[in-house]
Protein 1
Amino acid sequence: MRIGEKFISSIVNKNKTPDISSINTIKDEVIISKSLCQTEPWEYRVSPEKQYKSSGERGYKPDRGKYNLFTGSTFAILEEDKKLPGKEKIENLCSRIKSIDRKNKKELLSFTEELMKANKLSHDPVLLEESQKFISSLRPVFDHLIPENKVFPEKDSSFLEYGKGDPVLFFTERFPSLQDSFNKIFPDEMGYREYIHGQRELTTGNQIRDSLRTLDRELEMENLPREPGIRIKAVLRMVMSLFYSGIIPAIEIDKGNKEIKKIFKEDGFNLSNISSEFLDSKREISNIILENTMKKLNFTHGEISLAIKLMEEVPLTGNNSTIFDALVNEKSYMDYKGMDGEISEKVEKKAKELGITPQLLMKTGYIFHAAFKRMEPYELRDMKFTDGTWQPSLDFEKVGMKKFNSLKNSQTEPEHEEDKMFKTFIDESNELDKIAGEIKDREIETKKSQLRPVFIKGKLNSDGIMLVHATKGFPKDGILYPNSHYENGHPLERNPRGIVEFSWNGVIDQWNNAPAIILTPLNKAPKENIFNLWYTATSHMGPYNIPEGSVILIREGTAVSEKERQKLREKGIEIKTFPANETSEDAVEHAMTEKGYSPLLMGTDICGGIGTETTWFDEDSGIDYFTSDYKDEMIKKSEELAKEVGIPSAKGTDSYPLGYITLSMEGYKKDLESGHIKKSYEKPEEFKKKIDEFSRNLNLAEQSLSEIQKNSDSWKNISSYARAYLEIMSLDYELCKNCDDRFYESMEQELKDRQAGLSDRDNNNSFVIYYVKFINWKYNTSFNPQDIKGQEDQKKLLQKLMDKYFSSLNSNSHDV
């Protein structure tokens, strides 16, 4: 942040809720409006003539100075020695508070109010943190259920009460036995992965950092009601941080690691009674870790009890484990229509069991829900981002759940003077947290103003798009090859993909464990063989020569020699290494920000997905640009961008000819594992339509090529695969049309019988013999039916039949 930037930020106030009725409202400018202490409104924005300019490796910086909307002039950044408004007052107040008799609650309360007002004027993060510490130390004065000896030490309070610092470091520095719990990479066994978000997160630490990014923002912006004896924000941070802490220890115990219990015992965690069953022990271990860490961190008995109970109220991703999770979107609501009274009673009953108000329980439920959704950004589509916080997308009042909705918004006003002062104290504390949130928002705005905008005047900015490709291998020669280039064996046993695909400004979360990621600015990418421009599927036909100005991110531990690195550097390609236990998403975010590009979150649903099944999500604004609200408009903007940069189409992977045949062939390759493409349940006429559609797209793809492209090895490779698959499909169609819909189902059973030595079918009743004879008749071949003793023999016959399509291809294959 430049000198005096904090002061400039202090006299303006960011418009937190963008008008999302149209993407045309999105501008390349960073706009901050509504003056706090000036009579004139000001705008801080990048100069309209020059949105950004080069500033070396650190990316792109906005033009200096602030722009006055009405005069068109800029005014200078203040010098560092200028006093920030409110600074002197805050320092004076903090000094005077120390001398006030702690029994004089009214005077203390008056000072806290003045402190809050002074911080509103200053907006200085250092002074704000000091103010928050003073407020925290005063809690026992106004809350008799928090004794003086239970005030958090300053070194702990920063994280627990205000979310400062790295959560993983906070716990591992204080509890060394938790190192593996947070930092060990999740195992590959599916028996465990089912419970740990697949490949989307690599470690518990990744999960915590992601979820707390949302949780902390919610806690700053949401006015949580007072609860005597409960420092609710600290409790919620503990629950969110340690919810998954038992996973790695449970896995280790399940695998027979006898040392793990000893290691935990040294830190005061008694796991002696934990069973060896992973499913039974993971939550129990998390509860033990939560309870013992809270004791050592000076929480009260009431806070610990609430935290353990809330562990059962945290919504699990993909599982409606709470009423809040179940009611978060309209589709789920339909199951509960007409149950307003019954559901509201459940909330009131649950709140009573927990010892908190229904309002606090509901707000807690929504906060947890959003924090968990952040681990899989696709899930956030169930919610809406309003006034800086995530809320249910369903309007409960509108659909008739008035009582349920009122529970979230109603709170009992205090009657006694002591309670009134406590409420005022909590309100002032919440206001300071809001100021902290506003400061963060303004820091985000400053940071974003230094990045290339994704949109300029409502249009996609080609200079703000970074192409991202995650790969299992490392491009040692500076070339990304299509999947068909790799693996050994017959071409029909290899992946038929002949294109290399890129996403925009982020890595799709299914590739969070990728060993290498390649970043290329769109404006530096060679475009002659790019056939489609799409946020998840920018497709290059054939091998892609990584251009100068690209960056290759390598996961620590990936085998790449210094000689190989140097060879790429000589081509003008930058090589960066990132930690082994960091997600690809985080690595790409850091690299893109450093290069001056705006990172976006790309999350798929739990089953995967293409095109509009993937997010393009700006975490700071809460906008997902490819939801149904924006889909049509973004298609149009993508088409405009494609035309601008000279790329023929802008569609989802399966919606343009080359992409359609590519995805189709990848599906057919899986089908061919059973020796045919047609599925048993498909009717011949339905299958014929599939053949015709594939053939049509193959012809369209070829027609779109130049003569040079048609004669290229890349197209010859794709065409060979496509024509081989088309031939196999035609064979399947003719066999099933002439015989029976379920011809292959019957032949597969006969092949299994043959392999087991049980088949006694004569020539007239043998499906295998008919299959071979039909092929010999159709292709004028002389295969012997007696050579087909099992399914593998049948597949080899098919491969020999299709060799004619692959004979002209380069037979060399490359292992990853």
Note: The longest strand covers residues 466-471.
Protein 2
Amino acid sequence: MAEVILMPRLSDTMTEGVIAAWHKKVGDNVKKGDLLAEVETDKATMDLESYKDGTLLFTGTDKGGKVQVNDLLAIIGKPGEDISSLVKSGGSAKTSSPAPSKAETNASAPSQAPAKAETNASAPPPSPAPAATDTKKPATPSLDLSAMQEVILMPRLSDTMTEGVIAAWHKKVGDQVKKGDVLADIETDKATMELESYKEGKLLFTGAEKGQKVAVNDLLAIIGEEGKVNVQQIVDASKNKGTSPAPAKEPAAQPEETKTAVQSVATETHSLNGDSRIKASPLAKKMASEKGIDLSQLHGSGDFGRIIKKDVAEYSPAASAPAATQKAAAVSTAPAGQVSFDDIPVSQMRKVIAKRLSEAKFSAPEFYLTITVDMDQAVSSRTRINENAPVKISFNDFVLKATALALKKHPAVNSSWMGDKIRVNHHINIGVAVAVEDGLLVPVVRFADTKSLSQISQEVKEFATRAKNKKLQPADWEGSTFTISNLGMFGMDEFTAIINPPDSCILAISSIQQIPVVKNGAIVPGNVMKLTMTCDHRVVDGATGAAFLQTLKGLLEEPLRMLV
């Protein structure tokens, strides 16, 4: 049975998408998870993956064409299947034949946010009907949740997101909501992001409590006018994924009074928003910065645990010490000689790290190249540069700049494996692996070859701060063409890194070691650093990778060449 894929909402302000490229053509076989197309939104160009196995039977527009959000983008089904009715109706045909209903097709399409359609605005409560009538047709019709103005579905907030965790609710059931109000903080696989309301009215229902998971496109909230929206009918439809539910029974849902009380407690007792993203007023942040106070040590007394001026002014480090001591003591309370362990739930970020890196490790034929670099001149140059530089330049900044210049001379290394073709990138966007509490993020320094050492240093520092505070946005980590990973600060002599798809290479940077070296026939102390590059052999051959590393070595050993 043919399935339609509608244009998803890939950003909060997106109204239409432009097809930057199709990765499949009509007639190609498609597997679930295959890259179908690249869609250019108002903020970034993002990959669109298939949610269906089958044959690509139809595409709604050619490369460069525009498609409105929720309009027909593609149809996937069996070869020779009749899709004329779906094409004519834009994917929403409702006939007596067993074609998929609109609710079913939308469930398989990666819809990102509630469509603001004018149809199905609100379904009136079903009037009582005789039992004989109920046996002939369902009490509640099949509902297209994505087309209902009252319904907010879990949006896809990153290109790899499959579910979101409610980090915090900013509104509770019964609250009035205005368009643009922050409803909740959603923890994705890469960051915690704010979800704004697309509707004005009263919050009538929330699909999950703080800490619970909601799959993409599942019911997240209902906002509308009390008494005019049949909340139970919408909830039943969401549970049945658009199928016709059984005749209405006594609601088994939690009473609204109890649900409101539970959500009120969950909302009002958090100070770090459940995800270490500190909520503080600008004045509180400024005062804390001036006094050298770590905001994470404060308990906010403002709305939703927000830290305000009073909290900073009254903060006493001594008062918080006992609590910190108790927390540390609670970590290791296992009796000696007994088996003990903790089971830690896998975070969204860790799930995606496991999935993506496993795919890279077991699908790409990797090989490794290691080279030793004499860093004497880089060490002395950095010292002189930092005497007058507006920002402190690190050795990582040196390597990033040199890598960007070496990639210009070796474009084959700046390439991506696309399945049926190799994409040679003319732009140089370098991803920088940043360790965070839950795992790893890779923000991207764009057009790195055109930036100075000071610009690179400032940008990387800003990315690192935002990554650790979970403030990065999808546009910050998309579009890398090469990646570097630096463990030199941990004293690593040498290590290998796993490729970050779709890049074909990743460079592992070790520490600078002071060891005896031979120069001009004499043994003298020297500063050396090892670089190990992991290469995808489908794209990069050994000689190509070796030539790139030779160029990179030359730039680092004579840093003045980077200024030419």
Note: The first strand starts at residue 3 and ends at 6.
Protein 3
Amino acid sequence: MIQMTHRSSTRQILLLTPACPPLAWLKVVNWTVARALWPAALLGAFAIMIPPVIHAEEATPGGASAEQPKPGNDAGAAGASTDLSSGHIEEIVVTAERRPTRLEETPVAVTAFTPDTIERNRIQGIDDIALRTPSVSFVQFNNGEAYISIRGTLVNTPGAGWDDSVTVFIDDIPMTGIGDNAPDLYDLRSIEVLRGPQGTLFGRNVTGGAIDIHTEEPSFNEHGKAEITYGLNNLAQLRALWTGPLIGSELAGKVTVNVKHRDNYLNNVTLGDKTFGDAIGDVRGQLLWQPSDSVRAVFSGDYTHDQSSGKIDQLSGSIEPSLYPNLSYGPYNTNQGQNSASRKNILGSSARVDWDNDWGTLSSITGLRNVRDSISLSRLGDPDNQALVGRALQDRQYTEEVRMVSGPGGKLTWLGGLFYLHANKHDNEVDVFNLNPATVNGGAFPVPIIGVSQDIDQRVIDQVGAVFGEATYAILDPLKVTLGGRAQWERKSGSSTVLPSFAPGVPYAGVYPFIFASAAANYADTWKSFTPKATLDYRATDHLLIYATTAKGYKSGGWDTSASSDYGKSSAELARHLGTAFQPESVWSYELGSKYLSPDRRFEINAAAFIADYRDMQTNQFNPATGVFQTANVGKARAKGIELETTDAATSWLTLGLSYAYELARYTDYVQSATQNNAGNTIPLSPKHNVHLSAETNFASPGIAGTVNIGGDYTYRSRVYFSDSNAEAGFLLDQTKFDGIANLHATWNSGSDDWHVSLFSTNVTNRHTVAYATDVSGFYLTPAEAANAANKVYSVVRIPTRLFGLTIRHDFK
């Protein structure tokens, strides 16, 4: 037993009971946590130095309410949400089980964020969520290409033939994929990150987890807000929301607007200009119709137009290549001979109808998504433009979910649903090659490669039908068992073509067709699956929940276009490769967890230990010799670890938070080639340690009516690999650590709480962490230079640099 004493109260946290991980598990929090604690200590010390006389009087919170939570309250923040006026943790209500339940009563590993937490911490994207959530990694190449990993799941390719392991849902509508999973986060009621397979609860199947976002519904009480932001590099942003009645008490509306611009701020040392800025605007509108007390319908529409810079390839290396003596490896520089450009348009609409009846609530949720995304970029980030890419993606998706959820109370609760998805995906890519023949890869061809283009086109139609559900029965008053399952049918069909062309007048045009063949393939396949789930949860006390869950996740197979890199092969061989599917992926997940909220609602701790056993894991790897990503199935892999989230409302004016994840994700059976066995290697983008610390203080503003909130957070993440072979050089691995990413904010709130002025800074320590990297040495080095294995050049994507700014917001009623 560990005893924690604070002021006049003594708290006892039972870490040796089955409710929490044994102390042996916590030994993994060795020097890593100790190293990470100093920023929180400084933040806490700063807050404590504020004279106590200016703090609000500490309130005595009541015990946990026995009432059923209201659906309208489903906003919470595990480890971050505190009622700053009373100094206790506010009631946290989530919809992780598709009905409103208190977080401490929900046997699911979920992290949630309230609107207040989102506002205070300037959470505007999935990257901000991932920074604050255990076992979540996020890589964003640009606004049109972003990838999410949870508990060791692998990131995918932007190809039309892939499915994601982690899905973003907005108002229960699944987003289409990589071009549609990084939304602006403004008019929000809650964000919930669910870890582990969720197929029995969501329409769209997910193996790694789900990010469930709920927007604020239209209200019959008229109100709104508007804010302006100005920051570094001429960051200018306008966001506004209005909601109110339109026709009596039957029809209400809401509209939100977001416009953002930021100047280019990275130096292109080759072209002598700047690149990598933001230019985005989006609008969302909703109507709420309530014809009766038992029926409500919400109709939504959203549109996004984004012309921000596309993917920027920066470089990191251990050698100055003789062929490129003026390369810059600086974190503010890029060497690419052509700046990237992108254009994305997203149009979405949805309709949700809920009918409350004697059985519970019957819901129909219909969604339409149309994503068009085009980008041109330098694949290698080199001055010579050896490999230029032009890509156009179009995703059109229709989803329909019909779901019945039983009412609360009683010994038996249940839900069941039907789901249908129809997606039409088109991916067209044009690659233009002008390889330097003096490099390793350029010299590997029998003749110089000049003016060679490949038009790679893939079209896939995806149809999914599923029935899912689960039921919970109270065996005893504190002991419940949940059994669920999902039966799914999925059919994919499509075609792929590879069509080369050659610039006129090139003397080697007669040889090129023997190197770059044309090919076409049509394909279709159907996959069926059943994925069960079982949970046993036990309420040991009124404030302590213990649960154990086992669940199976599943992701269907598909096709990629890596056959385009089968140089020197015949058209027949390319066609066979194009038409060969990679196989489905499955995972069995086992989880033991506990949730504790102290009787005085001042201390909260949620813990989970998990094991995820993958079979036929789908991996997508960059081939350094061809510059193309290739898909394969891994025999077996296992991810295991622990997750810990705590919140301590230390006083009425100080709240401290800690989240920690230890993850050991490795391949257990994976022979990549005759010379490369990856068994025992770490799964890419899976850090062993992840620590996030936060502190928030509030006090009455001296000399002027109102209050002040000051807070910050700090993140440490150990190094990660990007390749299955774990062959990254040491100098690159050192750059992958989140070695102290700190964010700060300070807000003044007027006495009437309708004006808010905020100063903020993200990445205060200005770390230049590498978020993703590919080995492009063969396109830069001569054979003599490449003979030394220590000589490496990587194309890298770094996290955003330091940003600071000022936001002024006005709330009106």
Note: The chain has eight helices and 41 strands.
